[in-house]
Amino acid sequence: MLEFADLRRSFGDVVALDGLSFRVAPGELCGFLGPNGAGKTTAMRCAVGVTRPDRGTVTWQGGPIDLAVRRRTGYMPEERGLYPKMRVHEQLVYLARLHGMATHDAAASAHRWIDRLGLTDRADAAVEELSLGNQQRVQLAAALVHDPELLVLDEPFSGLDPIATDVMSDVLRERAEAGVAVIFSSHQLDLVEGLCQTVAVIAEGRLVMGGEVAALKARGGRRLRIEVDDGTAWVDELPADAEVVAVDAAGATVLLPVGADAGRVLEVAQRHGRLLDVHLEQPRLSELFRDAVGNGEVAPTDPGHGSTQVQP
Question: Do residues 33 and 202 make contact, with C-beta atoms less than 8 angstroms apart?
Answer without folding.
Answer: yes
